[in-house]
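Table 4 source record.
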Amino acid sequence: MEGTDPVNKKLAAALSGGAVLVLALSGCGDDGNDKLDSWAKQVCDAVQPQAKKIEAANAAIQKETSDNSAPADVQKTDSKAFQDMSDAYKAIGDAVDKAGAPNVDDGKTKQQNAVKELDKISTSYADLKKQVDKLNTGDQAKFAEGLKDIAGELDKLSQSGSDALKNLEEGDVGKAMAKQESCKSASATPSAS
């Protein structure tokens, strides 16, 4: 089994980067306006269960890869985790969409860009699921090679995701979100790194 071990660790590390991005959905600071606060509450309340789902998917992959499991088990776990992540990012995108534009300058643009980006991430995770489903579990070396490619994709994915949300959370939006209990608890979850 040693063949896939370093690759698995790389995959797990890349994945924990993805979780960080949802947990980035809480800034810091105080003061704001009522409209913005209620917008932030709506988004944070919707994000919290999705952040938990992403953490759970990360944890499953971490566990499977650290146990040095058989390729077929790694494939099954990764496939389900990628599907869960795809669903979670889609749900976060829908929540930001439903909440409407935050009551700040360029709120509409920031909101639309974030939704677009979150939907793109959701699609990318769905693609990774397809990729992992196609891997040849009967051939250790080929399987490890395939996982390496997926880990590379994940690295890129976690970066684009955190950029998308960074723009949405600049300034007052981040401050309003930081005050929400649900965002605080989402970000308090330890990252799976």
